[in-house]
Amino acid sequence: MPIIYLNGSFMPREEAKLSIDDRGFIFGDGVYEVTRVVNGELFESGRHLTRLSRGLADIRLDPVESLADIEDISRRLIADNALGEGEGTIYLQITRGAAPRTHHFPPADTRCTVFLSAAKFTVPHDKRATGVSVVTYPDIRWSRCDIKTVNLIPAVLAKQFAVDHGVFESIFVRGSAVMEGSHTNCFGVLDGELRTYPSSNYILGGVTRDVVIELAKELGVPVAERAFHVADIPRLEEFFVTGTTTDVMPVVEIDGKPVGSGTPGPITRRLYEALAARLYARVPAGR
């Protein structure tokens, strides 16, 4: 029976209850994080907590639990849910709490709702071996995509568009610029240079995205946070998406047309191997 954390208590998931007045339910008024667990260890927890801290500040949330508390809770959930070996994730959501429905903030003493859960995770190695297909999708989201808010209806509709077309992911296009996926960041290789849309309010600053940029520099792969455009897609030598549960996923087809040779490219493979080394090498099974 899965054990979760909710508002100061650990309990079986089936016993957890939320108020129908919770502002996460009514307004999508909250933020979230998903952190990878490998053999009982949190991967890049510090980066996730830093991004969480920014999100909390941006929408003016002040939970009772500190960042240190959240990390401690995460580690206890790893133990309580038997994630000491293999792959898993920790899901965290913080909302503005339960209060009478008003568009403005509730009274200052309203306690934030804090929820964490842990679950096993299956790595999609089969998809990585062959590569995946994606479709482009118009980006009509708001202009604060850098906040990891639980108000995810644009991402839901984009992901469903991908499902409707039988592909792995939808890639947002704003104007003509290739931005990011519904739940991933994206990279293209043009003339041997790795490109990704620059960090800004228009994309989410992905933890895996940041790690991949670091790894590219370590490997001597030319990398630029510089936009590429729809008109560049036919010239792409490689394309891949990244994410906490996606790792580095090669894309071999965009809108029904092959990318490069139509197979996972050498830069993509090198970057996944480097990411896997960082994910697994330091974390022995059974630790």
Number of self-contained structural domains: 2
Q: CATH fold name of the largest domain, please?
A: D-amino Acid Aminotransferase, Chain A, domain 2
Q: What characterizes the major β-sheet?
A: 9 strands, mixed
Provide the helix percentage: 25-40%
Would you kindly provide a written description of the structure presented here, covering whatever features stand out?
With 287 residues, this protein is an alpha+beta fold. It has 2 domains: 3-120, Aminotransferase class 4, branched-chain amino acid transferase, N-terminal domain (D-amino Acid Aminotransferase, Chain A, domain 1); 125-280, D-amino Acid Aminotransferase, Chain A, domain 2 (Alpha-Beta Barrel), CATH 3.20.10.10. The chain has 7 helices and 15 strands. Strands 7, 8, 9, 10, 11, 12, 13, 14 and 15 form a 9-stranded mixed β-sheet that branches. Strands 2-1-6-5-3-4 form a 6-stranded antiparallel β-sheet. A hairpin with a 3-residue loop joins β13 (238-243) and β14 (247-254). It is globular.
Structural topology:
Blueprint (H helix, E strand, L loop, with lengths): L2 E4 L2 E4 L10 H5 L2 E9 L2 E2 L2 H15 L7 H14 L6 E9 L17 E8 L4 H6 L1 E7 L14 H12 L4 E6 L2 E5 L3 E6 L2 E3 L11 H12 L4 E2 L13 E6 L3 E8 L2 E2 L7 H15 L7
Parallel strand pairs: 7-8, 7-14, 11-12
Antiparallel strand pairs: 1-2, 1-6, 3-4, 3-5, 5-6, 8-9, 10-11, 10-13, 13-14, 14-15
